[in-house]
Structures are given as C-alpha cells and as structure tokens.
Amino acid sequence: MLLSHRRFAALTVATVGSLTLAACGGGGFDSSSSSTSGGAGSSSTTASDTASSSSAPTGVALKMLIASSGDAETNAVKAATDAWGKATGNTVEVTVASDMDQELAQGFAGGNPADVMYMDAGKFATFAKQGSLEDYGDGFTDNDKFFESLRKTFTYDGKQYCVPKDFSALALQINTTMWKDAGLTDSDIPTTWDQLVAVSKKLTEGKVAGLGIGIGIDRLGAFVVQNGGWWLNADNTGGAAADAKVTDALKFVQDNVKAGNFKMSNDLGAGWGGEAFGKQLSAMTIEGNWIAGAMKNDYPDVKYKSVELPAGPAGKGTLMFTQCWGLAADSKNKDAAKDLIKFLTTADQQMKFADAFGVMPSRTDAAETYKAKYPDDAAFVAGGAYGHGPINVPGLTDVVAELNSQLEKMATADIAGATKSFDDNAASAIGG
Fold first, then answer.
1. pLDDT, tens only, 371-380
2. How far apart are alpha carbons 165 and 1 in whole angstroms?
3. Which helix (H) or strand (E) holds 98?
4. How far, in Å, CA of 281 to CA of 204, rounded?
5. Which helix or strand (DSSP H or E) is residue 322 part of?
6. Rounded distance, CA 227 to CA 235, Å?
7. Statement: residue 176 has pLDDT above 90
8. 395: buried, middle or exposed (CB in 10 Å: 19+, 13-18, 0-12)?
C-alpha cells in the first residue's frame, strides 16, 4: 500500500513526477476511512478453511516486502500470512519497507529479493523489463475474476506479470450543504460534461469554486479518458498526447478554469483537491476513496457524498490506482509463493483486508460484496468496470514530471506545446 502522506502530498509539483500515476492509490487507505469497521478476521470463513485445499510445499520460509499505511494494514497482512503459514506448515517474514523503491531495487540487484512484494502499477514494468519479476498472472487461478482493466494494468510485452491486490478510483465529491443552498437536488447530479459545467457555475460564489481539481495528470487524466484519449498510443510504443482527444479534454478544463467555475488546487491555496474541498474552498472535487479518511480526521463537520464522475463525449471514464502481488523471478520458492498469493487474493481474504484497513477488492465478486457492505463507496467501486490504469511504461518518470510541470498553471498552460513536448520526449525515452 502507498503511505498516507503520499496520497495527500503527491499532487505537489515536487513529487507528482516521481510518483507518476501511482500516487494516491492502490493499496490500502487510512485506517479511519469510511470502510474500516470490523477487523482483519471479521469474515465468517476461517483462514484454515480457505487454505485447506492448498498444494503448497511444506517447510518453506518466505519473505515478503510491503509498504504499509500503518499498523492496521501491517497487522492485517501479518495475520493473513500467519494463517496461511499455520495451515500449510510454512512461515512468512513480513518486512515493512521504509523506502520501497530503493529496497526493491537493492534486493533485485543483489539477487536476494523478497519472494513476494507489493508492486506498484507505475513501477512494475520497469522491473519486468529487467527480468526481476516472474510472469505468473496469465495462468493464475481465478484470474478472470479480477477486473479486466486491472489485469491490463499489470500486462507488459503481452504478458500479465501479476494479479492486482486491490485498487482505488476517482469519483466526484459534492458538498451537500452548498449543493442544497444553491437550490440543487439529486436530479441535478451531473452525468455529462455540460451538466458538470452548469452545476459548477451555480456553485461558484465569491472565493468558492464550483469544482476544485488537483494538479497533474493524476486528475486531469480522468477528463482525457472520458474524451476517449490517453497519453500513449494503444500499444504503448509512443506518445499520443497531441491527439485531439487529449488536447480537447485539457482545453475543456482550461476553458472552465479561465471562466472561474473550475479551479486547480494550487490556485485555491491547497496542496491537493481534498484539502480545498475540506476547507470549503470548492463545492466539488475529484478524488479517490482515500478522501474519506482525510474528511473524517481533518474536516469532520463537512457533509458530502461521492458520486460517479460525469461521462464525457466518449462515455464514462475514471482513473484507477493499484498494486499487485509481485513474485520475484529469483525466488527459490515460487510454488509456495504462488500458493500464498492465491490465499491472499481469495474473495474472503480481500474482504478481510477491506474491513481491516479500507482497501477496495480487485476481484469483481468481492467488489460486489464490498459495495453492499459499504454503499457510500459505490461510486468508487463502479470505476473498476470502466477505469483506466496508470502509465506503466518503463523510463517515463521524468517525461511525466515535465508534462505535469507544464500543466501546473492550467489557466495559462500551452496545451499544444506541452502535449507535443510529451510525445517527443516519450518517443525518445521509449526508443532509448
């Protein structure tokens, strides 16, 4: 899981490039989020029941490396691995990384990596390209039960390397008090871009923007997807940001920023969209399900609800952030590691993780259970069916950072120049 401070600070210019599209998502969430009732063992099915059919080798000692959001996540992962170990006669040593990227790189380079690890969607292809990851995903048990968009996210060079462990997605947050004061009702909840513009104008008053948006392509990309575009071409061999589907989406945002009814978080004096929304500097914002913890902890008096993002000219679209269970190519215990991953990704275990630290399951069957149990998160779960994963091509971190820098001041950004520059830089990086 991504650390909580990365969720909230990831949209600052200093870090958005290095985190690419992985910021704010995919793994666990603050233990105070709306989906944190119950505990790691709250499901009725026991761990020994789930692992009873295991064919794992016995007497194996596995190592696991995770990036945890806090004690709730760490304890839940340890409880799950202990349960699997007890049922199979194996052991799992869980280590919480202090610098995940560095420790992964060191382990792979030294030939002694953890057997199983959290692997971020924006980084996995880099490790896959260098031969550090086992490509076990295509033949994995129940692989078809995971959201297709998430499976594609962890596919590189035609192979699905790993299975997604959970995900997060963007939705639209509405300040219900401001909404009511503006004379709006549930029938006005926007389902199209035109409707989004109309309600944002009604909600804009004084220093309050109708819609506040976090800077960078981690948020702007949602509009791009809704317009049928993406930053790279279909086979990830080159940039496609200069395509009209991308530039028109960015121009749509820019026009509304200039009009004053949309504002970027930095123009509102906030570090991210959730802060602007929590301080009631914007009546709406676009954030992921991690916002629940921030609102509960920092802005408990603000009443709001989350709904699906409005559809664009090309239909519904959102951004998904995720991690997978990576398996080291150098692991000497691959069969046991695969069996552990199988145990950790059952619908039952995914719901235990959801109860313990607020993640959304990556399996469609578990996601339906989650949505029924946590209806306030239904808009986020819905994104699993039509969301787009992050850029997952090796070597583009600096290219994305440069694009984010050029789009920082959205009102005056040279969209044509920024997107052409991205395509040129992407061609060079991918070709190199």
1. 999 999 999 9
2. 9
3. none
4. 10
5. strand 318-327
6. 19
7. yes
8. middle
Amino acid sitting at position 314: A
**How confident is the model at residue 209, as a pLDDT?**
98
Q: What is the pLDDT of residues 123-160, one digit of tens each?
A: 999 999 999 999 999 999 999 999 999 999 999 999 99
- What separation in angstroms does the CA of 408 have from each of 38, 54, 401, 402, 414? 41, 51, 10, 10, 11
Residue 99 CB coordination number (10 Å): 10
Is the confidence at residue 18, as pLDDT, over 60? no
Contact 262, 213 (CB under 8 A): yes
Extract the tokens encoding 45.
Answer: 């099915």
Percent of the chain with pLDDT over 90: 86
Mean pLDDT, range 194-199, rounded to an integer: 98
Q: What distance in Å separates the CA atoms of residue 299 and residue 280, rounded to the nearest whole number?
A: 9
Q: What are phi and psi of 305, to 5 degrees?
A: -145, 160
The CATH code for residues 170-319+394-431 is 3.40.190.10
**CA-CA-CA-CA torsion for 59, 60, 63, 68, nearest 10 degrees?**
-60
Which one, of 209, 211, 229, lies nearest residue 221 by Cα? Answer: 229
- For 269-282, the pLDDT digits (tens) are 999 999 999 999 99
Backbone angles phi, psi at 429, to 5 degrees: -70, -45
DSSP state of 117: E
Q: Is the pLDDT of residue 240 over 70?
A: yes
Question: 235 to each of 1, 42, 157, how far by Cα in Å?
Answer: 28, 42, 9
CATH 3.40.190.10 residue ranges for the chain: 4-168+320-388, 170-319+394-431
Q: What's phi and psi for 231, nearest 5 deg?
A: -70, -25
Question: What is d(CA 14, CA 350) in angstroms, rounded to the nearest whole number?
Answer: 34
**How far apart are the C-alpha atoms of 230 and 243, rounded to whole Å?**
9
Alpha-carbon span 395 to 427, nearest angstrom:
11
53 band by pLDDT with thresholds 50, 70 and 90: low
Please give the CATH number for the structural domain made up of 4-168+320-388.
Answer: 3.40.190.10
DSSP-derived secondary structure letter, 431: H
Average pLDDT, the chain: 89
pLDDT at residue 54 is higher than 80: no
The SS3 of residue 425 is helix
E strand or H helix at 14, and its extent? helix 13-19
According to DSSP, residue 345 is labeled T
